[in-house]
Amino acid sequence: MTEFVRKTVADIGIDKTLEEIDEVRIKKAIDWVLKREASARLKVFVDTCVRCGMCSTSCHHYLSHDNDPTYAPAAKVKQTIWDILNKNGNVGKEDIKKYARIAFSECNLCRRCVQFCPFGIDIAYLISLVRRICCLIGAVPQYIQDQALSHMQTTNMLWFRQDEWLDTVQWLEDELRAEIKNARIPVGKKDAEILYLAHGLEAKYMTGLLANMAKIMNVAKVDWTMPDCDGWDYTNKSFYAQDHETLQKVVRTHYEVAFKLNVKRIVMGECGHAYRTGIYEGTRLIGWKENPIPYLYGVEFFYELLKNNRIKISQKIKEPVTLQDPCNIIRYRGLREKLRYIVNSLCENFIEMSPKDDHNYCCSAGGGMIDAGPPWKMARIEGGRIKAEQIKDTGAKIVIAPCHTCHKGIEDLNDYYKLGVHVKFLTDMIAEQMEIPEEMRA
After folding, report:
1. pLDDT tens figures, 206-231
2. pTM: predicted TM-score of the whole model, two decimal places
3. In this structure, are residues 381 and 413 in contact, taking their beta carbons and an 8 Å threshold?
4. Residues 267, 228, 265, CA angle at the centre, nearest 5°?
Protein backbone atom coordinates (compact mmCIF):
# COMPACT_ATOMS: atom_id res chain seq x y z
CA MET A 1 0.00 0.00 0.00
CA THR A 2 1.10 3.56 -0.66
CA GLU A 3 2.68 5.20 2.39
CA PHE A 4 0.31 7.16 4.64
CA VAL A 5 1.46 10.78 4.29
CA ARG A 6 -0.50 13.73 5.69
CA LYS A 7 0.11 17.35 6.65
CA THR A 8 0.65 17.84 10.37
CA VAL A 9 -2.46 19.06 12.18
CA ALA A 10 -2.35 20.11 15.84
CA ASP A 11 -5.40 19.27 17.94
CA ILE A 12 -5.02 19.38 21.72
CA GLY A 13 -7.95 17.03 22.18
CA ILE A 14 -5.84 14.29 20.59
CA ASP A 15 -2.27 15.45 21.13
CA LYS A 16 -2.52 16.49 24.80
CA THR A 17 -4.42 13.33 25.71
CA LEU A 18 -1.79 11.11 24.15
CA GLU A 19 0.92 12.90 26.15
CA GLU A 20 -0.79 11.96 29.39
CA ILE A 21 -1.83 8.34 28.90
CA ASP A 22 0.04 5.06 28.61
CA GLU A 23 -0.29 1.85 26.60
CA VAL A 24 -2.10 0.14 29.49
CA ARG A 25 -5.02 2.55 29.20
CA ILE A 26 -5.03 2.16 25.43
CA LYS A 27 -5.17 -1.64 25.68
CA LYS A 28 -7.93 -1.47 28.28
CA ALA A 29 -10.10 0.72 26.00
CA ILE A 30 -9.50 -1.55 22.99
CA ASP A 31 -10.34 -4.71 24.93
CA TRP A 32 -13.52 -3.15 26.32
CA VAL A 33 -14.81 -2.17 22.86
CA LEU A 34 -13.81 -5.31 20.99
CA LYS A 35 -14.78 -7.82 23.68
CA ARG A 36 -17.81 -6.18 25.30
CA GLU A 37 -19.37 -3.78 22.79
CA ALA A 38 -18.56 -4.90 19.24
CA SER A 39 -21.16 -7.16 17.65
CA ALA A 40 -20.78 -10.20 15.43
CA ARG A 41 -20.71 -7.80 12.49
CA LEU A 42 -17.08 -7.00 13.24
CA LYS A 43 -15.86 -10.55 12.61
CA VAL A 44 -18.21 -11.06 9.66
CA PHE A 45 -17.11 -7.86 7.93
CA VAL A 46 -13.39 -8.35 8.56
CA ASP A 47 -13.48 -11.99 7.43
CA THR A 48 -15.68 -11.27 4.40
CA CYS A 49 -13.76 -8.42 2.77
CA VAL A 50 -11.80 -9.73 -0.23
CA ARG A 51 -9.94 -6.45 -0.86
CA CYS A 52 -11.57 -6.12 -4.30
CA GLY A 53 -11.31 -2.32 -4.29
CA MET A 54 -14.86 -1.73 -5.52
CA CYS A 55 -15.44 0.65 -2.61
CA SER A 56 -12.59 2.96 -3.65
CA THR A 57 -14.37 5.17 -6.17
CA SER A 58 -17.43 5.40 -3.91
CA CYS A 59 -15.54 7.62 -1.46
CA HIS A 60 -15.48 11.38 -2.02
CA HIS A 61 -12.18 11.63 -0.12
CA TYR A 62 -10.56 9.11 -2.49
CA LEU A 63 -11.89 10.91 -5.58
CA SER A 64 -11.07 14.38 -4.23
CA HIS A 65 -7.47 13.33 -3.55
CA ASP A 66 -6.81 12.12 -7.09
CA ASN A 67 -7.43 8.45 -6.28
CA ASP A 68 -4.85 8.29 -3.50
CA PRO A 69 -5.23 4.65 -2.39
CA THR A 70 -4.74 5.51 1.30
CA TYR A 71 -8.13 7.28 1.21
CA ALA A 72 -9.99 4.23 -0.10
CA PRO A 73 -12.58 2.89 2.39
CA ALA A 74 -10.96 -0.55 2.61
CA ALA A 75 -7.58 1.12 3.18
CA LYS A 76 -9.00 3.16 6.06
CA VAL A 77 -10.25 -0.04 7.66
CA LYS A 78 -6.92 -1.79 7.04
CA GLN A 79 -5.03 1.11 8.62
CA THR A 80 -7.28 1.20 11.70
CA ILE A 81 -9.42 -1.67 12.97
CA TRP A 82 -7.56 -4.38 11.05
CA ASP A 83 -4.28 -3.03 12.38
CA ILE A 84 -5.69 -3.13 15.92
CA LEU A 85 -6.85 -6.73 15.46
CA ASN A 86 -3.57 -7.84 13.88
CA LYS A 87 -1.67 -6.40 16.84
CA ASN A 88 -4.13 -7.90 19.34
CA GLY A 89 -4.74 -4.43 20.73
CA ASN A 90 -1.10 -3.86 21.61
CA VAL A 91 -0.74 -0.50 19.91
CA GLY A 92 1.15 2.65 20.76
CA LYS A 93 0.35 6.34 20.99
CA GLU A 94 1.40 7.09 17.42
CA ASP A 95 -0.92 4.34 16.23
CA ILE A 96 -3.85 5.93 18.09
CA LYS A 97 -2.98 9.33 16.64
CA LYS A 98 -3.14 7.85 13.14
CA TYR A 99 -6.36 5.97 13.87
CA ALA A 100 -8.00 9.12 15.24
CA ARG A 101 -6.99 11.17 12.23
CA ILE A 102 -8.46 8.66 9.81
CA ALA A 103 -11.63 8.03 11.84
CA PHE A 104 -12.48 11.68 12.56
CA SER A 105 -11.17 13.55 9.50
CA GLU A 106 -11.17 11.11 6.58
CA CYS A 107 -14.46 9.22 6.98
CA ASN A 108 -17.84 10.97 7.23
CA LEU A 109 -19.68 7.75 8.15
CA CYS A 110 -21.83 8.47 5.08
CA ARG A 111 -22.17 4.79 4.06
CA ARG A 112 -21.94 5.51 0.34
CA CYS A 113 -19.34 2.75 0.12
CA VAL A 114 -21.92 0.22 1.33
CA GLN A 115 -23.83 0.79 -1.93
CA PHE A 116 -20.81 -0.44 -3.91
CA CYS A 117 -19.51 -3.29 -1.77
CA PRO A 118 -20.59 -6.66 -3.28
CA PHE A 119 -20.99 -8.01 0.26
CA GLY A 120 -22.63 -4.96 1.84
CA ILE A 121 -19.83 -4.44 4.35
CA ASP A 122 -20.68 -1.46 6.57
CA ILE A 123 -17.39 0.39 6.79
CA ALA A 124 -19.04 3.22 8.74
CA TYR A 125 -19.72 0.72 11.53
CA LEU A 126 -16.07 -0.37 11.55
CA ILE A 127 -14.83 3.22 11.67
CA SER A 128 -17.35 3.94 14.43
CA LEU A 129 -15.64 1.26 16.52
CA VAL A 130 -12.35 3.10 16.04
CA ARG A 131 -14.00 6.34 17.19
CA ARG A 132 -15.43 4.55 20.20
CA ILE A 133 -11.96 3.32 21.18
CA CYS A 134 -10.58 6.84 20.79
CA CYS A 135 -13.47 8.17 22.89
CA LEU A 136 -12.73 5.85 25.80
CA ILE A 137 -9.07 6.81 25.60
CA GLY A 138 -9.96 10.50 25.37
CA ALA A 139 -8.27 11.08 22.00
CA VAL A 140 -11.08 13.00 20.28
CA PRO A 141 -10.85 16.39 18.47
CA GLN A 142 -11.19 19.11 21.08
CA TYR A 143 -14.13 20.87 19.45
CA ILE A 144 -16.16 17.66 19.44
CA GLN A 145 -15.21 17.01 23.06
CA ASP A 146 -16.41 20.49 24.04
CA GLN A 147 -19.80 20.02 22.41
CA ALA A 148 -20.25 16.53 23.86
CA LEU A 149 -19.47 17.92 27.32
CA SER A 150 -22.08 20.66 26.82
CA HIS A 151 -24.65 17.99 25.95
CA MET A 152 -23.62 16.04 29.03
CA GLN A 153 -24.13 19.04 31.31
CA THR A 154 -26.99 20.95 29.67
CA THR A 155 -28.50 18.59 27.01
CA ASN A 156 -27.79 21.28 24.40
CA MET A 157 -24.73 22.02 22.32
CA LEU A 158 -24.11 25.64 23.40
CA TRP A 159 -24.18 25.71 27.22
CA PHE A 160 -27.51 27.53 26.85
CA ARG A 161 -29.33 27.98 30.18
CA GLN A 162 -33.02 27.20 30.52
CA ASP A 163 -33.91 30.85 31.22
CA GLU A 164 -32.02 31.93 28.10
CA TRP A 165 -34.01 29.44 26.04
CA LEU A 166 -37.35 30.75 27.35
CA ASP A 167 -36.27 34.36 26.78
CA THR A 168 -35.37 33.52 23.18
CA VAL A 169 -38.73 31.89 22.50
CA GLN A 170 -40.63 34.82 24.00
CA TRP A 171 -38.63 37.31 21.96
CA LEU A 172 -39.20 35.34 18.74
CA GLU A 173 -42.93 35.18 19.43
CA ASP A 174 -43.04 38.97 19.82
CA GLU A 175 -41.15 39.37 16.54
CA LEU A 176 -43.43 36.94 14.70
CA ARG A 177 -46.52 38.89 15.74
CA ALA A 178 -45.32 41.76 13.59
CA GLU A 179 -46.13 39.51 10.60
CA ILE A 180 -48.70 36.96 11.85
CA LYS A 181 -51.63 38.21 13.91
CA ASN A 182 -51.73 36.68 17.40
CA ALA A 183 -48.87 34.29 16.55
CA ARG A 184 -47.94 31.87 19.32
CA ILE A 185 -44.90 29.77 20.14
CA PRO A 186 -46.36 27.61 22.91
CA VAL A 187 -44.05 26.05 25.48
CA GLY A 188 -44.86 23.34 28.00
CA LYS A 189 -48.34 22.82 26.56
CA LYS A 190 -49.77 19.41 27.45
CA ASP A 191 -51.65 17.03 25.13
CA ALA A 192 -50.51 18.76 21.93
CA GLU A 193 -50.32 16.87 18.65
CA ILE A 194 -46.68 17.87 18.03
CA LEU A 195 -43.66 18.45 20.24
CA TYR A 196 -41.21 20.47 18.16
CA LEU A 197 -37.51 20.29 19.04
CA ALA A 198 -35.08 22.93 17.74
CA HIS A 199 -31.44 22.96 16.69
CA GLY A 200 -29.10 24.47 19.26
CA LEU A 201 -27.85 27.10 16.80
CA GLU A 202 -31.44 28.25 16.18
CA ALA A 203 -31.65 29.47 19.78
CA LYS A 204 -28.58 31.66 19.54
CA TYR A 205 -27.20 32.37 16.06
CA MET A 206 -29.83 31.22 13.55
CA THR A 207 -33.00 32.45 15.22
CA GLY A 208 -34.55 33.31 11.86
CA LEU A 209 -34.78 29.60 11.07
CA LEU A 210 -36.70 28.87 14.27
CA ALA A 211 -38.94 31.89 13.62
CA ASN A 212 -39.73 30.57 10.15
CA MET A 213 -40.68 27.16 11.55
CA ALA A 214 -42.99 28.92 14.03
CA LYS A 215 -44.46 30.87 11.12
CA ILE A 216 -45.18 27.62 9.27
CA MET A 217 -46.76 26.08 12.37
CA ASN A 218 -49.06 29.06 12.84
CA VAL A 219 -50.15 29.31 9.21
CA ALA A 220 -50.79 25.55 9.04
CA LYS A 221 -52.73 25.76 12.34
CA VAL A 222 -50.69 22.93 13.86
CA ASP A 223 -51.47 21.92 17.44
CA TRP A 224 -47.91 22.13 18.73
CA THR A 225 -45.65 22.99 21.62
CA MET A 226 -41.99 23.28 22.47
CA PRO A 227 -40.24 22.23 25.70
CA ASP A 228 -40.29 24.67 28.62
CA CYS A 229 -37.34 22.83 30.14
CA ASP A 230 -33.98 21.32 29.16
CA GLY A 231 -34.26 18.91 26.26
CA TRP A 232 -35.35 21.41 23.58
CA ASP A 233 -32.17 20.94 21.46
CA TYR A 234 -32.46 17.94 19.14
CA THR A 235 -28.75 17.86 18.27
CA ASN A 236 -26.54 15.18 19.78
CA LYS A 237 -22.89 15.91 19.06
CA SER A 238 -21.78 13.13 21.39
CA PHE A 239 -22.64 10.78 18.51
CA TYR A 240 -19.58 12.04 16.61
CA ALA A 241 -17.31 11.05 19.46
CA GLN A 242 -19.19 7.76 19.90
CA ASP A 243 -19.79 8.82 23.48
CA HIS A 244 -22.56 6.29 24.00
CA GLU A 245 -23.29 7.32 27.54
CA THR A 246 -24.04 10.97 26.75
CA LEU A 247 -25.73 10.08 23.47
CA GLN A 248 -28.39 7.94 25.11
CA LYS A 249 -28.85 10.45 27.96
CA VAL A 250 -29.75 13.19 25.48
CA VAL A 251 -32.12 10.98 23.47
CA ARG A 252 -33.82 9.73 26.63
CA THR A 253 -34.35 13.36 27.72
CA HIS A 254 -36.14 14.16 24.45
CA TYR A 255 -38.55 11.30 24.89
CA GLU A 256 -39.07 12.05 28.59
CA VAL A 257 -40.14 15.60 27.71
CA ALA A 258 -42.59 14.12 25.20
CA PHE A 259 -43.92 11.71 27.86
CA LYS A 260 -44.34 14.53 30.37
CA LEU A 261 -46.28 16.68 27.93
CA ASN A 262 -48.25 13.72 26.59
CA VAL A 263 -47.77 14.67 22.96
CA LYS A 264 -48.64 12.36 20.07
CA ARG A 265 -45.54 12.91 17.93
CA ILE A 266 -42.08 14.52 18.03
CA VAL A 267 -41.01 16.66 15.07
CA MET A 268 -37.53 18.03 14.50
CA GLY A 269 -36.08 20.34 11.87
CA GLU A 270 -33.31 19.75 9.36
CA CYS A 271 -30.37 17.91 10.93
CA GLY A 272 -29.44 14.43 9.75
CA HIS A 273 -27.25 13.19 12.61
CA ALA A 274 -29.84 14.22 15.21
CA TYR A 275 -32.54 12.25 13.40
CA ARG A 276 -30.27 9.23 13.24
CA THR A 277 -29.56 9.36 16.97
CA GLY A 278 -33.23 9.94 17.79
CA ILE A 279 -34.62 6.97 15.91
CA TYR A 280 -31.67 4.57 15.64
CA GLU A 281 -28.52 4.98 17.68
CA GLY A 282 -29.97 6.42 20.87
CA THR A 283 -32.96 4.11 21.17
CA ARG A 284 -30.75 1.07 20.50
CA LEU A 285 -28.30 2.08 23.22
CA ILE A 286 -31.14 2.72 25.68
CA GLY A 287 -32.38 -0.79 24.95
CA TRP A 288 -35.74 0.04 23.39
CA LYS A 289 -36.96 -2.26 20.62
CA GLU A 290 -38.57 0.67 18.81
CA ASN A 291 -39.31 4.36 19.31
CA PRO A 292 -41.98 4.84 22.00
CA ILE A 293 -43.36 7.92 20.19
CA PRO A 294 -43.29 8.59 16.41
CA TYR A 295 -40.31 10.81 15.60
CA LEU A 296 -40.50 12.78 12.34
CA TYR A 297 -37.80 14.56 10.36
CA GLY A 298 -38.62 17.99 8.96
CA VAL A 299 -38.89 16.50 5.45
CA GLU A 300 -41.59 14.05 6.59
CA PHE A 301 -43.46 16.83 8.37
CA PHE A 302 -43.31 19.28 5.46
CA TYR A 303 -44.41 16.53 3.08
CA GLU A 304 -47.51 15.95 5.23
CA LEU A 305 -48.36 19.66 5.35
CA LEU A 306 -48.04 20.10 1.58
CA LYS A 307 -49.70 16.83 0.63
CA ASN A 308 -52.69 17.56 2.86
CA ASN A 309 -52.94 21.21 1.75
CA ARG A 310 -52.25 22.48 5.26
CA ILE A 311 -49.98 25.01 3.58
CA LYS A 312 -50.06 26.23 -0.01
CA ILE A 313 -47.25 27.64 -2.13
CA SER A 314 -48.11 31.04 -3.56
CA GLN A 315 -45.33 31.26 -6.13
CA LYS A 316 -42.63 28.81 -7.18
CA ILE A 317 -38.95 29.74 -7.36
CA LYS A 318 -37.91 30.30 -10.95
CA GLU A 319 -34.12 30.19 -10.59
CA PRO A 320 -32.38 26.87 -11.33
CA VAL A 321 -32.24 24.81 -8.14
CA THR A 322 -30.38 21.63 -7.21
CA LEU A 323 -30.66 19.36 -4.18
CA GLN A 324 -28.25 17.83 -1.68
CA ASP A 325 -29.30 14.39 -0.39
CA PRO A 326 -28.32 14.24 3.30
CA CYS A 327 -26.80 10.83 4.06
CA ASN A 328 -28.71 10.23 7.28
CA ILE A 329 -32.18 10.76 5.80
CA ILE A 330 -31.61 9.26 2.34
CA ARG A 331 -29.25 6.30 2.66
CA TYR A 332 -30.31 5.64 6.24
CA ARG A 333 -34.05 6.43 6.02
CA GLY A 334 -35.16 6.47 2.38
CA LEU A 335 -36.86 9.88 2.31
CA ARG A 336 -35.80 10.62 -1.28
CA GLU A 337 -39.30 10.70 -2.81
CA LYS A 338 -40.84 12.84 -0.06
CA LEU A 339 -37.92 15.24 -0.32
CA ARG A 340 -38.39 15.59 -4.06
CA TYR A 341 -42.11 16.11 -3.69
CA ILE A 342 -41.36 19.13 -1.51
CA VAL A 343 -38.69 20.49 -3.87
CA ASN A 344 -40.95 20.17 -6.92
CA SER A 345 -43.72 21.93 -4.99
CA LEU A 346 -41.38 24.86 -4.37
CA CYS A 347 -39.35 25.10 -7.58
CA GLU A 348 -40.03 25.43 -11.31
CA ASN A 349 -36.54 24.54 -12.49
CA PHE A 350 -35.22 21.63 -10.41
CA ILE A 351 -31.96 20.11 -11.65
CA GLU A 352 -30.83 16.83 -10.12
CA MET A 353 -27.22 16.31 -9.15
CA SER A 354 -25.46 13.39 -10.79
CA PRO A 355 -25.23 10.97 -9.08
CA LYS A 356 -28.32 11.49 -6.92
CA ASP A 357 -30.45 9.83 -4.22
CA ASP A 358 -28.69 6.97 -2.40
CA HIS A 359 -25.61 7.45 -4.57
CA ASN A 360 -25.20 11.20 -4.05
CA TYR A 361 -21.86 12.30 -2.63
CA CYS A 362 -21.64 13.31 1.02
CA CYS A 363 -21.32 17.04 1.72
CA SER A 364 -17.90 16.22 3.28
CA ALA A 365 -18.89 18.00 6.50
CA GLY A 366 -21.01 15.24 8.06
CA GLY A 367 -20.09 12.62 10.60
CA GLY A 368 -18.53 15.27 12.84
CA MET A 369 -15.94 16.62 10.42
CA ILE A 370 -17.30 20.14 10.56
CA ASP A 371 -17.68 19.81 14.34
CA ALA A 372 -14.00 18.90 14.63
CA GLY A 373 -13.45 22.62 14.20
CA PRO A 374 -10.87 24.90 12.53
CA PRO A 375 -7.88 22.52 12.83
CA TRP A 376 -9.58 20.12 10.43
CA LYS A 377 -11.33 22.57 8.11
CA MET A 378 -9.02 22.02 5.16
CA ALA A 379 -9.32 18.24 5.51
CA ARG A 380 -13.03 18.48 4.75
CA ILE A 381 -12.64 21.25 2.16
CA GLU A 382 -10.08 19.20 0.24
CA GLY A 383 -12.12 16.04 0.74
CA GLY A 384 -15.17 17.83 -0.66
CA ARG A 385 -13.67 18.86 -3.98
CA ILE A 386 -15.74 16.26 -5.85
CA LYS A 387 -18.90 17.60 -4.22
CA ALA A 388 -18.01 21.13 -5.29
CA GLU A 389 -17.48 19.94 -8.87
CA GLN A 390 -20.78 18.05 -8.76
CA ILE A 391 -22.66 21.18 -7.68
CA LYS A 392 -20.95 23.33 -10.30
CA ASP A 393 -21.87 20.87 -13.05
CA THR A 394 -25.60 21.39 -12.39
CA GLY A 395 -25.45 25.07 -13.29
CA ALA A 396 -27.86 25.75 -10.43
CA LYS A 397 -27.97 29.06 -8.58
CA ILE A 398 -29.57 27.65 -5.44
CA VAL A 399 -28.58 24.51 -3.52
CA ILE A 400 -31.23 23.12 -1.18
CA ALA A 401 -29.48 21.49 1.77
CA PRO A 402 -32.11 20.10 4.19
CA CYS A 403 -29.58 19.43 6.97
CA HIS A 404 -27.63 21.87 9.13
CA THR A 405 -24.35 20.06 8.52
CA CYS A 406 -24.86 19.82 4.76
CA HIS A 407 -25.88 23.47 4.70
CA LYS A 408 -22.76 24.77 6.45
CA GLY A 409 -20.48 22.29 4.68
CA ILE A 410 -21.69 23.36 1.24
CA GLU A 411 -21.49 27.03 2.22
CA ASP A 412 -17.80 26.50 2.98
CA LEU A 413 -17.28 24.65 -0.32
CA ASN A 414 -19.10 27.49 -2.08
CA ASP A 415 -16.76 30.07 -0.56
CA TYR A 416 -13.57 28.10 -1.18
CA TYR A 417 -14.29 26.84 -4.70
CA LYS A 418 -16.16 30.00 -5.81
CA LEU A 419 -19.30 28.15 -6.91
CA GLY A 420 -21.52 31.24 -6.87
CA VAL A 421 -24.55 29.48 -5.37
CA HIS A 422 -26.94 30.31 -2.55
CA VAL A 423 -27.51 27.55 0.01
CA LYS A 424 -31.04 27.27 1.44
CA PHE A 425 -32.98 25.31 4.06
CA LEU A 426 -36.42 23.93 3.22
CA THR A 427 -37.82 25.70 6.28
CA ASP A 428 -36.80 29.12 4.98
CA MET A 429 -37.97 28.40 1.45
CA ILE A 430 -41.41 27.22 2.58
CA ALA A 431 -41.85 30.19 4.92
CA GLU A 432 -40.91 32.56 2.10
CA GLN A 433 -43.03 30.92 -0.63
CA MET A 434 -46.20 29.88 1.21
CA GLU A 435 -49.51 31.72 1.17
CA ILE A 436 -50.47 33.66 4.29
CA PRO A 437 -54.25 34.09 4.53
CA GLU A 438 -55.27 37.73 4.67
CA GLU A 439 -57.06 37.28 7.98
CA MET A 440 -53.78 36.07 9.57
CA ARG A 441 -51.68 39.03 8.47
CA ALA A 442 -50.75 41.51 11.17
Report:
1. 999 999 999 999 999 999 999 999 99
2. 0.96
3. yes
4. 25
